[in-house]
Design brief:
The protein is of the alpha+beta class. It has helices spanning about 60-70, 95-140, 150-160, 170-175, 175-190, 195-200, 205-225; strands at about 15, 35-40, 40-45, 55, 75-80, 85-95. It folds into two domains: about 15-105, no CATH class; about 145-235, no CATH class. The strands form two sheets. Strands 1-5-6-4 form a four-stranded mixed β-sheet. The protein has a two-stranded antiparallel ribbon with strand order 2-3.
């Protein structure tokens, strides 16, 4: 049975990782880990004038591309996949100085990305602090009797980025009155009533809410300076 057809060179030499033991037809060295086929015969890298190149495995596309850009001479390394019946790329051979320069370029890019991520994180932190302050101010506007530290705690809890809480919803980011009220009601329910203890004792959620609704109403009336809870406010949390 005929062996696999050696891939035709495209854009530079092609080097093969042989599946069986092969020796150089010129210097008789071997067995060869890598070889070049010339005139139908295997050649070692030294005899093919590629011995000064270093192997860069596949996997890092940017490093591979830049290593080839920085190398005057490079070669593609392939291996035959018997199951698929075709040659598959394993990496490249590049000049060591080219690889060093390529690594420096990639490291510079990585450092630039790190600095950009740090800047973005600082901007998000500042934005989150400002949003929490605005949310707390809206809590105090709707509930003048709410202590400042409690308003800040409600805002901080409701507006955690990525939490999915009411403060991060579209309504919450818009500081809608309904979203702010929902956050306050949820806080009162968990902090100022035995709601959590009822849940832990096995009481169903809706029944637990029914039992503590009067306590929630009392706190909210005190913070608001009179009035009643708007229908639907207790659905958050």
């Amino acid at each position: 049975m005929a062996g696999p057809v050696t891939p035709a060179p495209r854009g530079g030499p092609v080097v093969i990782q042989p599946l069986r033991r092969r020796h150089c037809a010129r210097c008789r060295g071997g067995p060869l880990a890598l070889l070049v086929v010339e005139g139908g015969a295997p050649r070692c890298l030294d005899c093919a004038d590629l011995g000064h190149l270093v192997f860069l495995p596949r996997g890092d596309t940017a490093l591979t591309r830049r290593s080839r850009e920085e190398s005057t001479l490079s070669a593609v390394v392939v291996r035959f996949n018997r199951r698929k019946g075709r040659y598959e790329r394993q990496g490249v051979l590049v000049e060591e100085t080219g690889l060093v320069r390529a690594e420096e370029r990639c490291l510079a890019d990585a450092e630039a990305r790190r600095r950009r991520r740090a800047r973005d994180a600082r901007r998000r932190t500042v934005a989150d602090v400002r949003f929490a302050e605005a949310f707390a101010a809206e809590v105090r506007r709707l509930f003048p009797g709410c202590p400042d530290d409690r308003a800040a705690a409600v805002a901080s809890h409701a507006s955690v980025r990525g939490s999915g809480r009411v403060g991060r919803s579209a309504a919450g980011r818009a500081l809608s009155e309904g979203a702010v009220m929902a956050a306050v009601v949820a806080s009162v329910r968990h902090v100022d009533t035995p709601y959590d203890a009822l849940l832990m004792s096995g009481v169903a959620r809706h029944e637990a809410r029914r039992r503590i609704s009067g306590d929630v109403e009392t706190v909210l009336r005190r913070w608001r300076g009179g009035g009643t809870v708007v229908e639907g406010e207790e659905e958050a949390g």
